[in-house]
Write a structure and sequence with these properties.
With 103 residues, this protein is of the alpha+beta class. 60% of the residues lie in helices and 14% in strands.
Length: 103
């Protein structure tokens, strides 16, 4: 996604007005935020609410990697932690023979 700022009007030495446009790229910043959010949610999911935070971390990391984030390592860690969240959930569920787990 590329957003453009309003046109800036300047006058040169001949008295003519000229318009220039400045552009900002916000898509890369958004994907970096997604990578960091997937890492944080995956890390938190190891402790609490892993049934919700694990899939969210996986989805955010996948979207960030698909869009080409600059924080590729952080997105891969978020993806791995999201999968680990679900594996921890399955391990505790099989140990307790219930649909949820508690310490």
């Amino acid at each position: 996604m590329q957003l453009t700022a309003p046109a800036n009007r300047t006058t040169d030495t001949n008295g003519k007005t000229r318009t220039t446009r400045t552009t900002r790229r916000t898509g890369i910043h958004d994907t970096d935020g997604m990578a960091v959010a997937s890492f944080v949610l995956g890390l938190l999911g190891l402790l609490v609410l892993n049934v919700f935070l694990g899939p969210i971390a996986i989805a955010l990391a996948s979207v960030a990697l698909w869009r080409g984030t600059a924080r590729r390592g952080r997105a891969l860690l978020g993806l791995g932690l999201g999968v680990a969240d679900l594996l921890v959930l399955v391990a505790f569920m099989s140990a307790d023979n219930t649909m949820s787990w508690s310490l």
